[in-house]
Amino acid sequence: MTRSSKMHKQSSRPYVIINCAMSIDGKIALPSKKPIKLSSLEDFKRVHQLRNYCDAVLVGIGAVLMDDPKLTVKSEFVIKPHNPIRIILDTRGRTPKYAQVLDGKAPTIIVMGERYKEQTSKFTNVEVIHHSIDTSGNIELSGLLTIFKEKGIENLLVEGGSTVIYNFLKDHLVDELFVYISNKIVGGMNTPTLASGEGAKTINDVMELTLYEYERLGDGLVLKYLANK
Questions:
Q1: Which of 18, 19, 61 is closest to 38 using CA atoms?
Q2: How does DSSP assign 111-136, residue by residue?
Q3: Residue 207 falls in which region: left (phi positive, over 0), alpha (psi -120 to 50) or beta
Q4: Which of 47, 53, 114, 144 lies 20 to 30 Å from 218, alpha-carbon distance?
Q5: What is the 3-state secondary structure (H, E, C) of 131-172?
Q6: Which residue, among 70, 16, 5, 11, has the nearest Cα to 44 in the 3D structure?
Q7: 18: three-class secondary structure by DSSP
Q8: Could you tell me the pTM of the whole model?
Q9: Ramachandran angles phi, psi of 144, nearest 5°
Q10: Coil, helix or strand at residue 50
């Protein structure tokens, strides 16, 4: 499933895998930011098998507000599915009351900023973690991953959105990245891409990954990269 090493269990953080799908031109949604189906049926099966393998799956609040994902494992893709812990990075506590991640079908953790504790009472049947915010106004990730490790999370799957993906990569907190390239072209100068955030300021800030495997799935292609430390 992954190139995860047993030696990583000695690390203070989980083994982190980013998984996402994009169009041929690197887009992950329509120009309006409305979600678009990019994965083939074969890729959906791969994603659900990957979720089944991991202890937890993480997304940012933007993905919840736009996509309303379940983040569970479907039995049509996996025999005897195991739902991972669902983790939402939600600095200001904006997860809607009726979001599918709050449906009780899998353990759920909401991570909020320390200054927004008054929002805690709106969440029931989930665990709320209040954590520090970095200088960019986002949840600080390195210390948070240490907390996850202490909770027994050994493998963490990050599924988006683009700012979350960029921040994990920027902070060198990624071990592998899987990207499915569909057979679609979306276009648009301001259309969301795989990684957004503040972006590289100089050539020295540009991140390089090592391609180690690729596979054709339907009319698309899965590329698998190792992150360079």
A1: 19
A2: EEEGGGGGGGGG--SSEEEEE-B-TT
A3: beta
A4: 53
A5: ECECCCCCECHHHHHHHHHHCCCCEEEEEECHHHHHHHHHCC
A6: 70
A7: strand
A8: 0.94
A9: -65, -40
A10: helix
